[in-house]
Give the backbone structure.
Amino acid sequence: MPLTISEVAHEAGVNPQTLRYYERRGILAEPARTPAGYRQYDPEAVTRIVFIKRAQDLGFTLEEVHELLELRVEHGAACGAVEATAGENLRRVDEKIRQLTRLQEVLTELVESCQLRQGTEDCPILEALER
Amino acid sequence: MPLTISEVAHEAGVNPQTLRYYERRGILAEPARTPAGYRQYDPEAVTRIVFIKRAQDLGFTLEEVHELLELRVEHGAACGAVEATAGENLRRVDEKIRQLTRLQEVLTELVESCQLRQGTEDCPILEALER
DNA sequence: TCGGACCTTATACTAGGGTACAGGGTTTGG
DNA sequence: CCAAACCCTGTACCCTAGTATAAGGTCCGA
């Protein structure tokens, strides 16, 4: 059962204009159309858009999201390029996880200090992302 | 040994105009000045700016970064608010880590598929951030 | 049948986050 | 002493990522 642009936008929690914008950017494929020209989306479009928004929330640009969504292996011959891109993105994700884990530790300590009513340093968070 | 705006910018890898912008935004405190009005930064400013940039790379806005940098306990009386804010940010960090871990798993599988020269689904990454 | 709500595209505008420029003062090394 | 490089503030501009608006067509329920 195809969805209208408003239905997809509503389910994904974005503005319909945003979907047209993603289409112009090439991040969303052009969907099928009714004879009147209305877009008809697969429900998978919602999943795609949720992915886009969550990846942005994790610090990826639309360009980077586009690159991630294009990752696939169609046949063995193309593996080198896909492996390189996936590996590079894997390293970035690893690094983000490492840094967020540091921040998580410092925030956990801060919450504990609060619970024990203990003062903290002037800016306990500052060095969390230093390395 | 205080640093000039160019020295701090260079060490932190940003543009000097960015530092003035952060000062206008209140994210960086106003530094000491020479009699001629030149800014003189503590070396700690570099740490602060590195924190800002890395937090942005992790998906935090400048507003959120500002909030994080303001987290501290000065005396027991203020603990409630600090604990609430730190707790809220801790939850967001937890969620980011969870989602990035999912993405990490999918990217790892993708790299392994490449190494085994196996085809993948049309868009193996898509569901990585679905929940 | 009709009106309100939806859709279309093209264009203009907004918000967040910078970054460049103008005009003029200061510093520093040759 | 002087030129180049630095600094200052205020203002303007740029980029990314949306989002609104205009003008007009389509759909659907009353």
